[in-house]
Amino acid sequence: MKRATILITILLFAVLLVSEAFARTFVTIGTGGVTGVYYPTGGAISRMVNKKSKEYGIKATVESTVGSVYNINAVLSGDLEFGVAQSDRQFQAYNGLAEWAKAGPQKDLRAVFSIHPESITLIAAADSGVKNVMDLKGKRVNIGNPGSGQLQNSKDVLAAARVSLDSINAEQVKAVEAPGLLQDEKIDAFFYTVGHPNGNIKEATSGRIKVNIVPISGLGIETLLTKHSYYARAIIPAKFYPNATNNADVQSIGVKATFVASSKLDDDIVYAITKEVFDNLEEFKK
Fold first, then answer.
1. What are the two backbone dihedrals, phi and then psi, of residue 164, each rounded to the nearest 5 degrees?
2. In this structure, which topology does domain 117-256 adopt according to CATH?
3. Average pLDDT, stretch 197-208?
4. For a designed S-S bond to 142, which of 65, 87, 161, 190 qualifies (C-beta 3.0 to 4.6 A apart)?
């Protein structure tokens, strides 16, 4: 009799554990490369939510992805519940522009909140002769991998400066690979849309090859700012990268990183995550 009672107790405990697991909703946050800014951002959000997993009935995990375009598409398809994406890519998807021109406006896409500013950053070897965007003609330039937000940013900046893709030797590798390629003298320059300070940029500016952060400014860029409201002026502080050859802050333009979801996602889940971020904003900023 005693043995039977113990067995029943164990079974009931197991049922309770299984019931609790099924009661939780699992959500995945799409980010970016593990050495970028998006990944730790997603990690910080998931940790906040998971501290109150029992209260909200939510368990959050983070997925490293190739970037904004992938995250947006995965959120819309339901493969991801949330994603971090550049604000310009979100705008383009919602309005059926760029990669979404054929598919049309993605009206189910929603911006939950903005996270941080991101500057379009152009890094060049100091001995490459690249002092402005126009100097990229004839150079080996990484413009960003397919699926990333910075690929379109690079194209926009080049077009604004009247530098055609045919006039450069364009590479399309991940941003995390670009610093190594530059230091190995396999490319002359690379674009990276990112928040500052950034570890990959520090890596690029701290190697054997001296580099400079190239200003993104001029008449063509002013026209670009007027044409596209999601771009804004930005400043890259020189103090963040003391090993670069720059003696002053660098002018550029940028966008914002946004936290996106689908309108089909349960409002309670969106509310819970948003509440945790804003209730713990100072911790989140760290």
1. -75, 155
2. D-Maltodextrin-Binding Protein; domain 2 (3.40.190)
3. 94
4. 190
